[in-house]
Design goal:
mainly alpha; 10 helices; membrane; transmembrane; transmembrane helix
Length: 163
């Protein structure tokens, strides 16, 4: 039982490290390869690693100047899909009918955070294209989970879903 509990999150945690790793853990090699290639392509073409380094050194204006937003806009959806897919596969699809909603909402809010990252300030601080999208995860998770709970309860009331 303990081994199963530990393995339950292993694919998810590896997917946080790099999209595609969780799929390899779940023996979905083709899907893992596609996600890894897409992640590396987007990462390289958008200068994302350099942007992360500059952001962590609080050089936000330089981050904004070097980032290629046209490429980076693909990253949130790829990343959130990789997380959800790895976790779903490891749990053999037993997550409920609306398990995708929180991460889909996160993909949306992180993308919106990225779009406003060059102008939106919080308390006079410009967080830039790395930190503002990360902070945008919070409302995505909150709203996504609220929507998931609402949809699940509504489906249960109509007799479409049983726990």
């Amino acid at each position: 039982m303990v081994k199963r509990q530990r393995k339950k999150y292993e694919a998810l945690l590896w997917s946080i490290a790099l999209p595609g790793f969780g799929q390899f853990i779940n023996k979905k090699h083709f899907k893992g390869f596609i996600l890894m290639v897409a992640e590396v392509l987007i990462n390289v073409m958008s200068n994302f690693n350099l942007a992360i380094m500059l952001s962590f050194n609080w050089r936000i204006q330089e981050t904004i100047e070097i980032i290629d937003f046209q490429w980076l806009m693909f990253y949130p959806c790829l990343y959130m899909y990789g997380l959800w897919d790895a976790y779903r596969d490891e749990n053999r699809g037993n997550l409920g009918p609306y398990s995708y909603v929180p991460l889909a909402c996160c993909a949306y809010t992180v993308t919106v955070g990225l779009m406003y990252s060059t102008t939106f300030e919080i308390f006079g601080i410009l967080f830039g294209p790395v930190f503002l999208p990360i902070l945008s995860l919070i409302p995505g998770l909150i709203v996504g989970n609220l929507i998931r709970v609402f949809l699940t309860k509504r489906a249960e009331e109509k007799g479409l879903v049983t726990e």
